[in-house]
């Protein structure tokens, strides 16, 4: 195996480690913070049943993407392939950084997190940590992870995942902004004015 082939394999492995770390943290965090929420274990179980389709859908989507991006598959995605070592390195760095952002944001959000947009009982507005950089750092992390995977994997099937992820996440941003605005009114309007949705902007001095 030459250096280029080795880097290609490593870049793919790094991406999938990031994906699995995110999924593990997502599941463990749901249980850990869910049982400590205001509704307790029973409340978490009720919410878990209600959001089960979304959870299953995400896991199924990840499985489909993995099957599509692993192996040759008869050259199905060859017309979308463009892999270079430089892009692979950028993609790996972006994937790792995005995963770190996802974990940070998930921890800070704590019991206020849900797998679908909704208001928790006695919902609190989080504005510290990563939520001081962007309003939706989990979505920023997800977009960064998919984009990093696209670059590291040489585009291919990841292009389809990116095309699906962008409008889906933008829709979620719109829905969640509406929920938060309805719940927190002027406070959220001011937060929204000061903090961008997904892409951090330079601080004014």
From TrEMBL:
Record Gene3D superfamilies: 1.20.120.1630
Keyword line: Membrane, Transmembrane, Transmembrane helix
Pfam family, one: PEMT
Chief place of localization: membrane
Subcellular location: Endomembrane system
Transmembrane segments: 14-33, 54-70, 82-105, 142-170
Top-rank taxon, per record: Bacteria
The UniProt record lists the keyword Transmembrane helix: yes
UniProt key word Ligase: no
Membrane topology of the entry: Multi-pass membrane protein
Protein name per UniProt: Isoprenylcysteine carboxylmethyltransferase family protein
Species name: Streptacidiphilus fuscans
């Amino acid at each position: 195996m030459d250096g280029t082939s080795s880097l290609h394999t490593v870049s793919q492995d790094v991406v999938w480690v990031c994906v699995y770390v995110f999924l593990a943290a997502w599941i463990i965090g749901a249980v850990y913070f869910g049982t400590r929420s205001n509704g307790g274990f029973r409340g978490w179980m009720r919410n878990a049943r209600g959001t089960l389709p979304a959870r299953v859908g995400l896991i199924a989507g990840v499985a489909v993407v993995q099957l599509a991006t692993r192996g040759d598959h008869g050259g199905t995605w060859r017309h979308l392939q463009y892999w270079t070592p430089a892009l692979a390195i950028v993609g790996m760095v972006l994937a790792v950084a995005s995963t770190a952002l996802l974990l940070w944001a998930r921890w800070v959000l704590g019991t206020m997190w849900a797998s679908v947009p909704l208001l928790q009982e006695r919902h609190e507005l989080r504005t510290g940590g990563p939520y001081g950089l962007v309003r939706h750092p989990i979505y920023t992390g997800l977009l960064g992870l998919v984009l990093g995977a696209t670059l590291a994997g040489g585009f291919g099937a990841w292009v389809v995942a990116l095309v699906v992820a962008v409008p889906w996440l933008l829709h979620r941003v719109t829905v969640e902004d509406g929920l938060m605005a309805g719940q927190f009114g002027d406070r959220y309007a001011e937060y929204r004015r000061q903090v961008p949705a997904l892409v951090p902007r330079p601080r004014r001095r």
